[in-house]
Amino acid sequence: MRFLHTADWHIGKKLHGFDLAEEQIDAFEQVKKIALQQKVDAVVIAGDLYDRSLPSELAVEQLNQMIIELNLKLKKPILAISGNHDSATRLNTGHEWFKATQYYLSTNLVEALQPIEFEDTQFFLLPYFQPYQARNLFEDPTLVEVNTALKRIIKEMKMKFNPLKKHILVAHFFVAGSSKTDSETKIEVGGLNAVPAELLCDFDYVALGHLHNKDALKEEKIKYSGSLLKFSASEANLKKGVWIVDTDPFKCTFIPLIPLRDVVVLTNSYQELISPKTAKQIPRETYVAIKLTDKAIIPDVMNSLRNYYPRIISLERAYGREDNDAEKEDVNLNLDPMELLTNFFHEITDEELSSEQKKWAAESLGTLEKEADL
Amino acid sequence: MRFLHTADWHIGKKLHGFDLAEEQIDAFEQVKKIALQQKVDAVVIAGDLYDRSLPSELAVEQLNQMIIELNLKLKKPILAISGNHDSATRLNTGHEWFKATQYYLSTNLVEALQPIEFEDTQFFLLPYFQPYQARNLFEDPTLVEVNTALKRIIKEMKMKFNPLKKHILVAHFFVAGSSKTDSETKIEVGGLNAVPAELLCDFDYVALGHLHNKDALKEEKIKYSGSLLKFSASEANLKKGVWIVDTDPFKCTFIPLIPLRDVVVLTNSYQELISPKTAKQIPRETYVAIKLTDKAIIPDVMNSLRNYYPRIISLERAYGREDNDAEKEDVNLNLDPMELLTNFFHEITDEELSSEQKKWAAESLGTLEKEADL
């Protein structure tokens, strides 16, 4: 069979205060067209349908409408899971009715173990989960890390494998060795929660969500689809789109989307940026991350640049600024939460975290991050 | 046909900080049993399924489960509308799939005009609405008040009347002349939004939600079901339950529920209240609103009363307290928002609101109250 693999729609997301609703709808329309042109038998959405566990009414209406169009109007089966940004409970509303039209939505581990059967393919829909859910389900207190929990889950799935069919896993986690961007929530706290790719080798294809870069992982049959839109300046150079996957014979083709409004990084001097020649090259609607090469103080620089680039999403100095006082380094927030905590613990106690403390910390951080929907 | 009429479930509601989830589930179980025993052909829920437009995950799970049990497990058709406490958009999620199992949920005016057809009965499901929605739908700028808007809506409904069937309206508003309790949101701002009962005379029965007292209105065929639980001390003496309605020949029977934990008002002296004889008469789990007849200062009165009555929901002095300083009258918050605004305007400007200003104020307050979900 042939299916379309997408993920990380993040409906409701704002880009530095700019509402992305128009961009989201435009990208969705392109996905719809691709699904039709490519005559796919199903659409896989590998988590993070919403940007937050408490989506706005507008976001709810928008996602509801998209699912209605894809599933009820175009009659495309949908295979979806909840991601770390979704509230599994809220997303699950109506779930019992959805199967009737082949909208398969999985938000808990019990459902993950039951394959969705197509003529020649079995889909296992594994939502974003915490190890404690596996501990509870299997009544096994040793399932403390994502790895061991996943191993157990996959063992269970394999017992349901029909050898005459292909086996596809849809999941939402961080696979060890993947490269990251700035716009993903770090769920692989302290590295304990990264999944080794070897664990996934029994599937004919693994359709992943979570990372926003389609090339985050260099595996032939384990792929992130990436997001439909660029969600940060760090994604400016990424190609966004969807995978079209043929299961037999296996083939995986990337189909790019054309952004309604692109995200670009401009590294240049103030004088160059406000010259008509430079400014004209960038459509006014483009989201612009500016790295100023000047070191001098420029009065009211943000407002004057906005005259040329109305959608500035960030303004930095490529080489710092002359008044060094303003350059004081703050806590490095790019460290993952576990590193921050480890450093803080060391600063305060002058001791290192024990391995048991590390385990506790990792678990608590995992729970906190899920709850805070960071 | 025979149907059960209920409303104002307010799933997720707390009673002065006490979670009512257990009471809600218990009441629902009783409703289920009544639906089975009475062999009803459908269950009508006339709005305010949730207590707030942004229900907690727990509330979402609870209501989802109730609908699943009633509709999918017991196979009872459900006829439901959104009330002023519900987010129409959020409640609507999955709506397009629900019809397949006869779960009819109406959250907007367009749906209200399409009757739900049973063999011998037509149901019109009119959700809580604001006049602007009618103005937009009918492109008629004169529909400024609820009355005129409703008149127009009913005119439209009557064009769909099948003369061979009975006609039932399910709605959520304040009918003029109804008596109120303290736990309902005042949506009839300034009296402009009260609906005269005469407007509803063309229906064989009007199943209302909004007021929590089943006897709020003295009409044979226009009834509030009241809430399933007592939501304030002012409801302590009300009987809670559901109506069983036979359409032909018309008959309307009230079936009371037995509260898991009752709400009572105790008017008594401190010494009497802490006497074992008095305290023993009240089950410890009961929600108690206390009106102390003492006027003397009693140190730590709340905490010592809690030893006997752990679920105190309010503590007042029936006749005031000796230290009159503490009795200073605050703004009377029992006035409706329009009266408060009118008084405030007069205090500040020494003038009265013009009729046009009143109209604007009423409209703005209506919008605000809906948004703030007071």
Can you summarize this structure?
Chain A has 374 residues and is an alpha/beta fold. Chain A is built from twelve helices and 16 strands.
Verbal overview:
Two copies of one chain form a homodimer. By secondary structure, chain A is of the alpha/beta class. The first copy, chain A, has twelve helices and 16 strands. Chain A is globular, with a radius of gyration of 22 Å. In chain A, α11 (337-349) crosses α12 (355-372). In chain A, a hairpin with a 2-residue loop joins β12 (241-247) and β13. Chain A starts with a strand and ends with a helix. Helix content of chain A is 30%, strand content 20%. Chain A has helices at 21-37, 57-73, 88-91, 95-98, 109-112, 131-138, 146-158, 270-273, 276-280, 301-306, 337-349, 355-372, and strands spanning 2-6, 14-15, 18-19, 42-46, 78-81, 103-106, 116-117, 121-125, 166-172, 205-209, 222-224, 241-247, 250-256, 263-268, 287-292, 312-317. Chain A folds into three domains: 2-256, Purple Acid Phosphatase, chain A, domain 2 (4-Layer Sandwich); 263-327, no CATH class; 337-372. In chain A, the strands form four sheets. A six-stranded mixed sheet of chain A has the order 6-5-4-1-12-13. At the A-B interface, α2 and α4 of A face α2 and α4 of B.
